[in-house]
Write a structure and sequence with these properties.
Blueprint (H helix, E strand, L loop, with lengths): L1 H17 L6 E8 L2 E5 L2 E5 L5 E4 L3 E4 L4 E7 L2 E5 L4 E8 L6 E16 L6 E6 L4 E4 L2 E7 L5 E5 L3 E6 L2 E6 L2 E5 L9 E2 L4 E5 L6 E5 L5 E3 L7 E6 L5 E6 L6 E6 L6 E2 L7 E6 L5 E6 L6 E6 L6 E2 L6 E7 L5 E7 L16 E6 L5 E3 L21
Parallel strand pairs: 9-10
Antiparallel strand pairs: 1-4, 1-6, 2-3, 2-5, 5-8, 6-7, 7-9, 8-9, 9-12, 10-11, 11-14, 12-13, 13-16, 14-15, 16-17, 18-19, 19-20, 21-22, 22-23, 23-24, 25-26, 26-27, 27-28, 29-30, 30-31, 31-32
């Protein structure tokens, strides 16, 4: 969800920066690399931070290692991955009446976000093998070189039609459509696992997919540790020593765009996502002790929640997202003259808004966070 919120902020910002376009136009915003637009006999090449108004009939192609956003209205957008080729077949967004977006994908990866509650808005995606109707939520569509289509639904629903057959794909499901065949029966997306390995000499983060394939996500000279999936499975928070001390970073699910969130000269550890994906709790030594902090998913508004005594460790969010459970070590229980992680700790609950702390020995805490979220996208 953090990625979704971040994408929404980008969309709104670009929309108002460019100004309201004509209702039959969309805004193309290259995010990385190069983007080509073919318009009749003319060809335009764009790169960040350029933006361009595009309309019906325009063909858009992203280059290698490139990404772009097509913003139809702030509530509807498509994110184009590397090596993607699409055409705006139809685009009708009247001020008062039914709106229609029809995007043709010939190849590549696209993420679609439709958040409008307007029942009149229709969002159709055409591929060589299927027609997909998207309903408000977030969807991923991948079209291979041979025209086969895979549709993943992360939120909401989608209807996929091919060869006189229609299937409805629910959140957490996917379907595939080979060229010339009907859609497969929707199936649950399978979990993928993150782990840390020192096989290359230092600790890096790896991913193990459902078919047993392993992909290295980080390749830093320093140790990368404690990976944590975002609730929607699009991002991974982790701690790394690459800046000379332990910092909290975030990266995309495929290891791309590794960004420092904490930027602090003292150590930050153990990131944990809130259930709605908008915030991250973590440990920090920045104020002299080891305490629990929280920040927005983009690293802004870093706030201290606990003030001693002892060591405050291992934050985990409660199911309802109203606070954080953590372990507190206050004494030298193993009598080695140190108060450290080897000592016995009690569990506490801290309200993430006002910092109120209370013990949780007498309350029933249930943890149901998604540790390994959905995802079948090929990595590497």
């Amino acid at each position: 969800m953090a990625a979704v919120l971040g994408l929404t902020a980008i969309i709104v910002g670009i929309w108002y920066f460019v100004g309201q376009s004509e209702r039959d136009e969309a805004i193309l915003s290259p995010q990385e690399g190069s983007v080509t637009v073919r318009r009749g006999f003319n060809t335009l090449s764009l790169s960040p931070p350029e933006v361009l108004k595009v309309g019906q009939g325009d063909e858009i192609e992203t280059g290698a290692d490139s990404r772009a956003l097509i913003i139809f209205v702030p509530e509807a957008s498509a994110e184009l991955g590397s090596g993607t080729d699409v055409t705006l077949n139809r685009l009708s967004l009247p001020e008062d009446g039914a709106s229609l977006i029809e995007l043709e994908i010939r190849r590549g990866d696209t993420w679609h976000r439709l958040s409008s509650s307007d029942a009149e808005m229709q969002y159709e995606v055409l591929t060589p093998s299927a027609r997909v109707t998207l309903f408000p939520a977030r969807h991923h569509i991948a079209v291979s070189e041979d025209g086969s289509t895979q549709v993943e639904v992360w939120e909401g629903t989608a209807q996929v039609r091919a060869q006189d057959t229609e299937v409805e794909v629910q959140a957490g499901e996917y379907t595939s459509v080979p060229l010339g065949r009907a859609p497969a029966v929707p199936r649950p997306m399978v979990a993928r696992f993150l782990f840390v390995s020192e096989r290359d000499g230092n600790a890096d983060i790896w991913l193990l997919d459902e078919e047993g394939r392993e992909f290295q996500l980080t390749q830093s000279w320093a140790d990368d540790l404690a990976p944590a999936w975002s609730p929607d499975g699009t991002q991974i928070a982790f701690e790394t020593l690459r800046d000379g001390n332990s910092e909290i970073y975030v990266m995309n699910h495929d290891g791309s765009e590794q960004v420092n969130l904490t930027h602090n000269p003292t150590a930050d550890h153990a990131p944990a996502w809130s259930p709605d994906g908008t915030r991250i709790a973590f440990e920090s030594l920045r104020d002299g002790g080891r305490d629990i902090y929280v920040m927005n998913a983009d690293g802004s508004d870093q706030v201290r929640l606990t003030v001693g005594p002892g060591l405050n460790l291992a934050p985990h969010w409660s199911v309802d997202g109203q606070g954080i459970v953590f372990s507190r070590i206050e004494g030298d229980t193993n009598r080695d003259d140190l108060i450290d992680r080897a000592d016995m700790g009690a569990f506490f609950f801290v309200d993430d808004k006002d910092g109120t702390v209370e013990g949780v020995w007498d309350r029933r805490m249930i943890f149901e966070q998604v540790i390994f979220p959905w995802g079948r996208r090929i990595v590497g």
